[in-house]
């Protein structure tokens, strides 16, 4: 053992691979302190890899600085700025934006809503030819069926699936689907979930459910004020949290026009996750942080609980955030497992997370590609962030 080595006593402890946030957001470089805080919040919670779903100027440089350990943060895999109805005007522009982002060095192409079918097809074809992939939302003009046909790499938030499951006697395009399909609940054919899952599996498309984000918005309880009072909100700017309170207060009435609509939407999504898992669909852990009361790092542990509530075992839920992302990125020899030769992305725990996923929520220490953060360093960093926002 080298004389300057740090010896970590893991006696009677549990070691697991670092977690991957497959639908995260990383701030831009215009507010360096907030950026540093968000990166630390991920790492402090055992998140050692983040797939950033909204690229910004400077993110490619940031990715390199993290790789070189010049900045403390999780491994960063980033899209470029999202393609949407607001950023794209015609198929030619969609194609050119994809080529520009590939040339700039972004890892993949993020799709938002609002694209026409022609723009979406042009972006998907350009990505295929350039050796990258598209991921994210399913535009209304496209639909899940077409997204599966072009093998969109991931469909996040289960976007578009309620429309895809509407019974044949209804035309979902003629109505407002509402928040992730909440207005379609009475028209959805549950018998079709297994078939849609098999189609998804056969297309090789992976799913990032982000159920915690949907629940935070759709469920009337906990209230906006109760969510804002959760201890982890101390680590985010107060004005950001206040904006989420206002947003939820404005949405609850529209989401719950029908009795228990928000609860029924969450229950539908739980059934979809369970059936997709049973049918062999690739599932990836993601929470969409920082968004709608989801604090980076903390919210991924909330998502683990939602996956268990949906019917997955603790092992299966943890697999979504460790082994599965490495398989998705064809990076099995890099991260996601504990093995000689892989990156030292590790989380040390006091209790067995295979018995209770909540055990993963308070690590005794986190190792990020060989850099060790013990509990004292984690607590000091969290306290420093909270003090700035107090």
Query: Which percent bin holds the helix content?
Result: 40-55%
Terminal residue distance = 44 Å
CATH class: Alpha Beta
Q: What percent strand? A: 5-15%
> pLDDT average, as an integer?
95
What is the CATH topology assignment?
A: TIM Barrel
Order of helices and strands: EEHEHEHEHEHEHHEHHHHHHHEEEH
For the biggest β-sheet, the strand order reads 1-9-10-11
Shape: globular
Please give the CATH architecture. Alpha-Beta Barrel
The counted number of beta strands is 11
Task: Write up this protein.
The chain is of the alpha/beta class. It has a single domain, classed as TIM Barrel, CATH 3.20.20. The chain has helices spanning 32-44, 59-67, 91-104, 117-130, 143-149, 161-164, 193-203, 211-218, 224-228, 238-255, 261-278, 298-309, 314-320, 323-328, 375-389, and strands at 14-17, 19-24, 47-52, 75-78, 109-111, 134-136, 154-156, 206-208, 346-349, 365-368, 371-374. The strands form three sheets. The protein has a four-stranded antiparallel beta sheet. Helix 5 (143-149) links the parallel strand 6 and strand 7. Helix 3 packs parallel to helix 4 (117-130), helix 7 (193-203) crosses helix 11 and helix 12 crosses helix 13 (314-320).
Quickly describe the structure.
The protein has 15 helices and eleven strands. It has 390 residues and is an alpha/beta fold.
Which terms summarize this structure?
TIM Barrel; 15 helices; alpha/beta; single chain
